Amino acid sequence: MRVLIAGSSGLIGTALVSHLRETGHDVLRLVRRTPAAPDERGWDPPAGRIDDGTFEGVDAVINLGGVGIADRPWTGARRQEIRDSRIVPTEVLAAAVAEHGVPAFLSGSATGYYGDTGGVAVDEAAPHGRGFLAEVCADWEAATGAARDAGARVVPLRTGLVLSPAGGLLGLLRPLFKAFLGGRLGPGTQYMPWVSLDDEVGGIRFALETPSITGPVNLVGPTPATNAELTKALAAAVGRPTSIPVPAVVIRTVLGSMGEELLLFGQRVVPAALESSGYQFRHHAVGEALSAAVGS
């Protein structure tokens, strides 16, 4: 299968390109600079421009772009950047998928779509919740409309918190735990929708190769874990004890709504679409996923 990927240089994109090539797929990468390799094609999303011939023979487009949501404070300008970096490229790609008759469009989204679900388990049929990220995700998924209207198989990829030795959530927490500064956040009872990097890319490939999958897919591990369970498992994986918990009031005071949504919202998300379609998870529990990542 010939697959065109936007966002191929990020944590997920880099792993996905390697994984798809190892499993026999022909991968092309969209880049925002002048193409410098045979597998690169240029584009400029704000200008709505994609190099001529880019979609020749392409069977599927995978869209993984978007600036980080946890690396800078959520100022008004940063909120707009988070939205624009996701919605504008998605609209451009959806229009191109429709124009060129590409059969499948797998496009980024996140479990932030559900907002704060507390202890209630939610699958792909649940409505979007409240909060900045929930609204961004809802609009991000709506931006695929042109491709869906043209008859393409559209799969929003609702990604959870990716556990990888190369970065992501573990990249932020691991140094704290090694320095004996890692503890649960807030009450610790809030669910955190974790997924190993192996199952993130494996789940995307499975959705790509399974024509019966259409509509959103939750890319999360099969066994939900609370913040307390995740931090305990991480402490064990790095051989450190957990330290004093960080109270919710401190998180809200220091980080504002960003801390509220990223660290205190609970999302007990389950991967119903993957499980019902027969996907075989490599990591079933957060402890084994963290041990694998830390040992990598």
Automatic annotation (TrEMBL):
Pfam entry (one): DUF1731
Coiled-coil residue windows: none
Entries under InterPro entries matching the protein: DUF1731, Epimerase_deHydtase, NAD(P)-bd_dom_sf, SDR39U1
Domain annotation NAD-dependent epimerase/dehydratase: ranges: 3-212
Residues covered by the DUF1731 domain: 246-292
Family: Belongs to the NAD(P)-dependent epimerase/dehydratase family. SDR39U1 subfamily.
Protein known as: TIGR01777 family protein
Species assigned in the record: Pseudonocardia broussonetiae
